[in-house]
Write the structure tokens for this entry.
Amino acid sequence: MQFLFPIIQSIHIVGLTLLVGTIAIADLSTLGFVRVASDPAPWTVKGLVAVGVTGPLLFLWDWHRYLSNPAFLVKMVILAIAVITHFTLDRSKHRKLAAVLSLILWSCVVLAGRAIADFDIRGV
Amino acid sequence: MRSPISTSAVSSLLQQIQDLALSRAISQSVWGYPIVGAVHVLAIALFGGAVLFSNFSSLEDALKLRTLTRIGFAVVMLTGALLFASNAVRYSKSLCFQAKIVLLVLLAINALFFSRTRRRSYISLGLWIAVIFASRGIAFF
């Protein structure tokens, strides 16, 4: 069973690449840096499904190990802010602000996520 | 027949890379490796997302994303080289790291020498996933 852990982690990283990579394209498009014609959202949804399934699996695998990891706790707080911002900020009024916040918050989720390995007590 | 490049020359070169002031600054400081590692992963998400979207959308969209793709590529390569240098001896011995380099070469060949087709896009996607699996494996094997 132990070999499953790196596999689920790998799927999580593939998923976050789809999710955050295409969110960044949508945000940069809103800000006018790149104006893509086709919608990246279908890829964002695929990425969201992948991280939505693998994330909780990784957490449940060793939940007390994650709860004692400061990087994990920081990631969850930023993730909560990112999700709340996504659903509460009125995009029709604050398009550019929403794009800037989304870029910053999702980037910080990835940075904190990677740092989980550095703050792991077992040092994986 | 003896190889023109001796194994001891390679391992001494790897040791020298690892002993560079820059490499030691990353491996021996508290925040060096975590920061470079985190930027590496974030750049992979931005670069990978842009490459994937470029592969599966129109040529015009791909051209518009070229700046983002190039910046992402540069940051991934730079941070990757720094992470490697910080622990060159250990990484070069890792089977997963060696597999990762082979996969990256295949990815480069696919991107540079083949024309933009549906098949190339799927090969690129498959190789990307394989590179990520190999990369994660470095921490375990």
